[in-house]
Design brief:
The chain has 124 residues and is α+β, with helices and mostly antiparallel strands. It is built from five helices and ten strands; from the N terminus they run βββαβββββααβαβα. The strands form two sheets. A seven-stranded antiparallel β-sheet has the order 5-8-9-3-2-1-10. It has a three-stranded antiparallel β-sheet with strand order 4-6-7.
Length: 124
């Protein structure tokens, strides 16, 4: 099950790690992505801080980390094919995997139904 942040990132728990990416909404807002600066392996990421940098035809943007954790894997495919972020943002276009993610931060994220209400301006 995916969880979403108000900054339009998603996380999916997979055992002791979480996979992180941008939502379809965010991918559409970014425009055509032509470069992704992936986070460093082993880096400690803080929730609310910059996870990575994405450059599109519109602008360069920081992707905000929805949760804290240590980077244990990056999606190297994005370096060769940054368009994956547009074509498959919630599957093949994932950005990285984090470990040591605080349970309280995961619990604070929205489920998919709540995120859809958030996108459409509905009150929970």
């Amino acid at each position: 099950m995916k969880h979403y942040s108000e900054e339009h990132q998603w996380v999916q728990v997979d055992g002791d790690t979480v996979m992180v990416g941008v939502s379809s909404f965010a991918a559409e807002e970014l425009g055509e992505v032509n470069f992704v600066e992936l986070p460093e392996l082993g880096a400690m990421i803080a929730a609310g801080g910059a996870l990575c940098v994405v450059e599109s035809v519109k602008a360069a943007s920081d992707v905000i980390a929805p949760v804290s954790g240590r980077v244990v894997e990056v999606n190297a495919s994005l370096a060769e094919n940054p368009g994956l972020l547009n074509d498959s943002p919630e599957k093949d276009g994932w950005i990285c995997k984090l470990s040591q993610v605080p349970a309280a931060e995961l619990a604070a994220l929205m489920d998919e139904k709540s995120y859809q209400r958030f996108l459409h301006g509905d009150k929970p």
